[in-house]
């Protein structure tokens, strides 16, 4: 995400970048928080809260398209940079967590949310 973000003690190593193929999502639990790890169509890694803001559904099971992930239940898409839904029925954003990629590894902090 931000190139200026420092790799502080808040950040947890989640996986290697190559473990996340482009336009896929995977579920991770970071300090008890369910997180959808997503690699967008440009290869950028994102971390967002895994639970759809419209219902108790795992977003990591949805399709990734461009810089969005789709909730498989009712079809709302969420912007991976902002967490904002791009269409109904979801109206509330999901949390977006800072990501650092360093030496081929992905680190995420959920502590600021
Ligand atoms: S549960 Fe995700 S859009 Fe309805």
TrEMBL record:
<keyword id="KW-0001">2Fe-2S</keyword>
<dbReference type="Pfam" id="PF00355">
    <property type="entry name" value="Rieske"/>
</dbReference>
<dbReference type="InterPro" id="IPR036922">
    <property type="entry name" value="Rieske_2Fe-2S_sf"/>
</dbReference>
<dbReference type="InterPro" id="IPR017941">
    <property type="entry name" value="Rieske_2Fe-2S"/>
</dbReference>
<dbReference type="GO" id="GO:0004497">
    <property type="term" value="F:monooxygenase activity"/>
</dbReference>
<keyword id="KW-0479">Metal-binding</keyword>
<keyword id="KW-0411">Iron-sulfur</keyword>
<keyword id="KW-0408">Iron</keyword>
<feature type="domain" description="Rieske">
    <location>
        <begin position="12"/>
        <end position="108"/>
    </location>
</feature>
<dbReference type="GO" id="GO:0051537">
    <property type="term" value="F:2 iron, 2 sulfur cluster binding"/>
</dbReference>
<dbReference type="GO" id="GO:0016705">
    <property type="term" value="F:oxidoreductase activity, acting on paired donors, with incorporation or reduction of molecular oxygen"/>
</dbReference>
<dbReference type="GO" id="GO:0046872">
    <property type="term" value="F:metal ion binding"/>
</dbReference>
<protein>
    <submittedName>
        <fullName>Non-heme iron oxygenase ferredoxin subunit</fullName>
    </submittedName>
</protein>
